[in-house]
Predict the 3D structure of the following.
Amino acid sequence: VRVANLQGRLVLIEGDTAVDVAEASGGRFPSDPQAVFAEWDAFRDWASSVDPGRGEPFAVEALGPPVPRPAQVFAIGVNYAAHASEAGYPPDSTPVTFTKFPSCLAGPVCEVELPSSTVDWEVEMVVAVSRETSRVRREDAWGHVAGITLGQDLSERTSQLAGARPQFSLAKSHANFGPTGPWLVTPDEFADPSDLAISCSLDGETVQSARTSSMIYDVPELLVRLSRVCRLFPGDLIFTGTPSGVGNARSPKRFLRPGEVLVSELEGVGRLTQRFAAQGFAAQGDGT
Ligand code: ZN
């Protein structure tokens, strides 16, 4: 099952068409893409058993974030050994947790204004929680995942890493700093949801390329550790960390510049496309 947010309405993705869930279910399920997580299991069972038929063609530019208003967004730092090494963390470092405030979430295709000249890319697999979760056991954890999507954890490095006053969460929460999508894919759609190719490219040059199987804490371990502290709610998001290849770790350092295009890809999910603009310029554009 693949679900998306088409102009604020929950849709099933069938091939290259979208089926409106509220209409196809006769109102049984909501049109709000966030509300469906309150009854995710019933929705998934319905969606995988009905033949919704062919829907309407749609433009990927019209998609919003598949999970638009999560109660909580957890983000994991230093979750790939090669990235820990390039970022200067000791080999025995454990992943860290912060948040991206939900207002930074955006759809799969968007323009992002650059608040400074030190904004960096971080391609990440993102998972959505399917049910209220406390102290989940590792062997049960995948059963608490509604689906997998793709995200960028865009990061303003100057404020994020400001010496004694680091601002991890704010630095990663500027407008449109959390593009996600293009859709949410249920785990059963993957031969192995723990081993997916993930990459991103900048103006056609590959800058990150890895497999999610090289995470230090895999998805079940993240759910175990997060739910040991926090109650997780249906429709919460977890950004699972980025592999190596970020611009801040390059020599010389490289950051996003106005006019550049970042394309991110996750095997079995799809692609995000972000174009960057100097702050203040986007509002004067062509209005699209
Ligand atoms: Zn990150």
